[in-house]
């Protein structure tokens, strides 16, 4: 059994469940749940407002997590960390704010494998500012076409937006190479780290990433909280996204002076307790060690792929390099039928287009089945999944 399973109360309540949907959302370890309950029970109050101990302590904890996140992803300064509701919110913040900095015919490059969260906010800027979106293609072996990027990069390109790891293919993209190409013409790079953050140690300063987004709920933390990292000098020139309380220095009916980043991007009461939970999730990951986590999930993914390939008619969309995520189709059998029947057997996988419809079009499939592993999974889970899949296929074919 996975050494880490014991930390997840959901598996004590549901010992038979085979949870292979961590790519959609990860289960929560007891330290995350306990930190949030304890915070509500002992300390909770709104932040940056009260002059009493609870509020001061809550503010302290909230700001402490900002520092923890900065350290976790290698940001130079906590002020480069903006708390958002999640990756989707982070990318919408960036796109909305950038829409004020872009002009007609400025180009944005987005890869064709992106989750809709990193596609639609950019596509929308075609309507909002008449920007032009170009699509970085993916090759048959699941690698992005870096040669295309080299040929198509130009001073007109202002932003390149790519995922660190595809939520369908599970393959890590060569962020370093993309950044080098983009920076050669002064374009900025957003990395969507929704899938990457939980499996890989990363250092945004070392990589020289301009913007980085991820969600708490995919890294064993709570829902409702996420991060947008941005280099300080870029955040400084970006206008706010939402307007409201706790983001202004002063307001008169004639004049508004906004606070510096990150406060100017955090209007209103933020997800305080969720931020506390996110801090515990980061502690949890760091106590295990990111290298160990990556190694563990790579081995498990290889086992998953090798077992899947023994089943006739299975076509894997992912490549051998995939980590934690394997998407596949079965010739002549509906993915949805398979998913429903697996669900009835207590096997949780995702079926559909996984919010990446252009990617499915590119690979010529209508939908796929995605199995994704977390640190609570082990070979035993994979064996149960494979047995259930064989059984389902024997009934459907
Ligand atoms: C690659 C990728 N980007 C963005 C998102 C959106 O994340 P969220 O729904 O947490 O905002 C997801 C979610 O599955 C994802 O996998």
Structural account:
This protein is of the alpha/beta class. The protein has 2 domains: 5-20 and 289-396, Alpha-Beta Complex (Aspartate Aminotransferase, domain 1); 32-287, Type I PLP-dependent aspartate aminotransferase-like (Major domain) (Aspartate Aminotransferase, domain 2). The protein has 14 helices and 15 strands. The strands form 4 sheets. A 7-stranded mixed sheet has the order 2-8-7-6-5-3-4, sandwiched between helices. A 4-stranded antiparallel sheet has the order 11-12-15-14, with helices on one face. Strands 1-13 form a two-stranded parallel sheet. 47% of the residues are buried. The model has no long low-confidence stretch (mean pLDDT 97).
Judging from the principal axes of the Cα atoms, what is the shape?
A: globular
Helix content: 25-40%
Radius of gyration: 22 Å
Count of individual domains: 2
Low-confidence stretches: none
How much of the residues is beta strand, in percent? 15-25%
Let me know the CATH homologous superfamily of the largest domain. Type I PLP-dependent aspartate aminotransferase-like (Major domain)
Which small-molecule species are bound to the chains here?
A: pyridoxal-5'-phosphate
Supply the CATH class of the largest domain: Alpha Beta
Q: What is the CATH topology classification name of the largest domain?
A: Aspartate Aminotransferase, domain 2
CATH-level-2 architecture of the largest domain: 3-Layer(aba) Sandwich
Helical element count? 14
Largest sheet: 7 strands, mixed
Average pLDDT:
97
């Amino acid at each position: 059994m996975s050494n880490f399973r014991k930390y997840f109360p959901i598996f004590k309540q549901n010992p038979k469940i085979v949870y292979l949907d961590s790519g959609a959302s990860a289960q929560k370890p007891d330290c995350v749940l306990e930190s949030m309950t304890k915070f509500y029970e002992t300390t909770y109050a709104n932040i940056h407002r009260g002059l009493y101990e609870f509020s001061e302590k809550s503010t302290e904890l909230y700001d402490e997590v900002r520092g923890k996140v900065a350290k976790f992803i290698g940001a130079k300064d906590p002020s480069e960390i903006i708390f958002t509701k999640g990756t989707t919110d982070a990318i919408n913040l960036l796109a909305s704010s950038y829409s004020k900095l872009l002009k007609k015919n400025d180009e944005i490059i987005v890869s064709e494998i992106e989750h809709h969260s990193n596609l639609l906010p950019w596509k929308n800027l075609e309507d909002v500012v008449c920007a032009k979106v170009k699509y970085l293609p993916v090759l048959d072996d699941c690698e992005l076409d870096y040669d295309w990027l080299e040929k198509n990069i130009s001073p007109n390109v202002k932003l390149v937006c790519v995922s660190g790891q595809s939520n369908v293919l599970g393959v890590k993209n060569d962020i370093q190479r993309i950044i080098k190409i983009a920076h050669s013409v002064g374009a900025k790079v957003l990395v969507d780290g929704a899938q990457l953050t939980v499996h890989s140690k990363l250092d945004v300063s070392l990589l020289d990433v301009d913007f980085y987004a991820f969600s708490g709920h995919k890294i064993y933390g709570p829902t409702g909280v996420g991060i947008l990292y941005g280099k300080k000098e870029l955040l400084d020139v970006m206008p706010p996204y939402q307007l409201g309380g706790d983001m202004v220095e002063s307001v008169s009916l004639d004049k508004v002076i906004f606070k510096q980043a990150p406060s100017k991007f955090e209007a209103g009461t933020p997800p305080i307790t969720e931020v506390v939970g996110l801090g515990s999730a980061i502690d949890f990951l760091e106590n295990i060690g990111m290298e160990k986590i990556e190694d563990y999930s790579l081995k498990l993914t290889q086992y998953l792929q090798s077992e899947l390939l023994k089943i006739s008619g299975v076509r894997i969309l992912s490549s051998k390099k995939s980590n934690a995520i394997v998407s596949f189709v079965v010739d002549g059998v509906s993915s949805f039928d398979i998913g429903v029947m697996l669900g009835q057997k207590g096997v949780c996988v995702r079926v559909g287009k996984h919010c990446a419809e252009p990617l499915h079009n590119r690979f010529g499939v209508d939908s796929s089945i995605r199995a994704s592993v977390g640190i609570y999974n082990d070979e035993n889970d994979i064996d149960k999944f494979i047995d259930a899949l064989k059984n389902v296929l024997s009934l459907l074919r």
